[in-house]
Specification:
This protein is an alpha+beta fold and 174 residues long. Helix content is 22%, strand content 33%.
């Protein structure tokens, strides 16, 4: 039988773990999210798949102010992974202002990014970005983040139109 032994080290604690056949291919997958102590509020997230008597890594996401959740977002019987994170985790404001969500799902047995298949997620983000882009006066320090917010809004709009986009392309735009 196959046995999965999650990595643990000082300062890392398992927040949650789920073992199931997420993509309905007859192989077990393991999704695990850790809590890492520290100021970045990082929750490293990993997905493994049964491969004979071992497990192979399919996805590793480590970002600031992150959290993952598993849902069947499109009612196809296979669970997608929604990974929420902040592009800038340097302070309370930027952590909140630069949030993004990636959707990972299955194309056959392959785990791929499917942001462009879930427009509702990005419609909600656009409402938030619009608020931030209009709520502050030009002298407020949020203006430093205007280019990044405009980029994130554009990426969200692309996903709504069915064109795959990621917030990663906006990460260092100031």
């Amino acid at each position: 039988g196959s046995e999965f032994k999650p990595y643990e080290s000082s300062g890392d604690y398992v927040d949650w773990m789920e073992v199931a056949d997420f993509n309905k291919d007859g192989k077990k997958e393991v999704a695990i999210e850790y809590i890492v102590t520290g100021t970045a509020l990082s929750h490293p997230f990993y997905v493994y798949q049964e491969d004979g008597d071992r497990f192979k890594l399919l996805l590793k996401r480590v970002e600031g102010v992150s959290h993952a959740r598993l849902i069947d977002a499109n009612d196809d019987g296979r669970k997608e992974f929604i990974f929420s994170y902040s592009l800038d985790s340097t302070g309370a404001g930027p952590r909140d202002w630069t949030r993004w969500e990636d959707v990972w799902g299955w194309d056959g047995g392959e785990l791929i990014k499917l942001n462009d298949h879930f427009p509702e997620i990005y419609k909600n983000l656009i409402y938030y970005y619009d608020y931030l882009l209009t709520a502050f006066k030009p002298e407020d320090w949020l203006t430093w983040y205007y280019p990044m917010l405009r980029c994130l809004k554009g990426a969200a709009q692309s996903n709504i139109r069915g064109v795959l986009a990621s917030g990663e392309s906006c990460k260092n735009i100031y």
